[in-house]
Structure formats: structure tokens, C-alpha cells
Write a structure and sequence with these properties.
22% of the residues lie in helices and 40% in strands. The protein has helices at 3-32, 54-60; strands spanning 41-43, 67-72, 75-82, 89-99, 109-115, 129-132, 135-142, 147-156, 159-168. The structure holds copper (II) ion. Copper (II) ion binds next to loops.
């Protein structure tokens, strides 16, 4: 091995080591639920990210930062957070409920369940008030930094369904 290839090998090892440390610290931050910004995103009940599908984006258009959406049955559920990114303390939660054709749905009752996947937390379930035009609003509290899961619980008539969003602050 020449001196030059030796140096290249060392450089590659250093890059790999830095990358590994970076990845581990990111994973740990996520597991511990602290100190890392996780952008608001739609997830499944078990926390798998759901990318916006074409039938969602064709109705919602491009989503603003701090807004995420997903489809559940015939419902399209948009969640917007204000301020964004949020910090510990009070934050506004705005849900817009649409049908598959983009028509507003005004007859639902919605509540939220704010939990943290990495730990057990006291119950945190703000109820939403209907505003107008498919929009529902709640003021909620993030009681600590870390990785939050926002469950949006939607009841229409006898039917209740939930959609989930993840967020780190
Ligand atoms: Cu916590």
C-alpha cells in the first residue's frame, strides 16, 4: 500500500466514523424524545411516516410548512400547527376536514390526544371546537420538549376514526 492510498483509507474511515456517530446520536435523540426537531408529518397508528398521496395532494395542493395531511377512509384530514415550529407551552391546532372531493365537512366532532411515544405522559386531550368551513380549532399545551404524537379523533354519527401525526420540539 502506498502512502497515498493509506491516507485515503484513513480519510474514508474518519468520514464513516463521523457518519456513524451522527446517525447514532440522531437515533438516540429520537428514542429519548429530546432535543431534535422532527418536522410535522403524517404517520400511521404505529408511527410509520405516510407520504402525501396523489389523491390527497390533488385536493389540498402543496402543503405549507407546519401543515400535514392524510386520508382516512373517505376523509382528508389536514393538521396545521401555529406557531410552527412550536415550542414548550401553548400552541394552536387547526384541523380542516374534507371529503375525497375536497368538500368541507362541518358535522364532525373532533378531539386530540397528545402523547409521547418515548414515555408515559399525563393525559393531554384537548377537544376541538368547530369554527367554520370544515375547520376545527383547539389550543393545546406541549408540556415538555421531545417527540410528540398527535392523534386526531374524528367522530361522525356512530363512526369514530383516528389519524396520527408526529412532531418533535
Ligand atoms: Cu414526555
Amino acid at each position: 500500500m502506498t502512502k497515498k492510498t493509506g491516507l485515503i483509507a484513513i480519510a474514508v474511515l474518519v468520514v464513516l466514523a463521523v457518519f456513524a456517530m451522527f446517525t447514532i446520536s440522531r437515533m438516540r435523540a429520537r428514542m429519548m424524545g429530546g432535543g431534535e426537531q422532527i418536522e410535522l408529518m403524517a404517520v400511521s397508528a404505529d408511527g410509520e411516516q405516510i407520504s402525501p398521496s396523489a389523491d390527497v395532494t390533488s385536493v389540498t395542493g402543496e402543503l405549507a410548512k407546519g401543515t400535514a395531511a392524510q386520508k382516512s377512509g373517505d376523509l382528508i384530514v389536514l393538521l396545521a400547527l401555529n406557531p410552527y415550529p412550536p415550542s414548550v407551552g401553548q400552541g394552536d391546532f387547526d384541523v380542516t376536514l374534507l371529503d375525497a372531493n375536497g368538500q368541507v365537512i362541518n358535522d364532525a366532532s373532533i378531539s386530540l390526544d397528545l402523547t409521547m411515544p418515548a414515555m408515559r405522559m399525563p393525559s393531554n386531550q384537548p377537544s376541538m371546537e368547530f369554527v367554520a368551513n370544515g375547520q376545527y380549532h383547539a389550543a393545546g399545551y406541549y408540556t415538555m420538549r421531545g417527540w410528540w404524537r398527535i392523534e386526531v379523533i374524528i367522530t361522525r354519527g356512530a363512526e369514530t376514526q383516528s389519524v396520527f401525526f408526529d412532531l418533535g420540539l
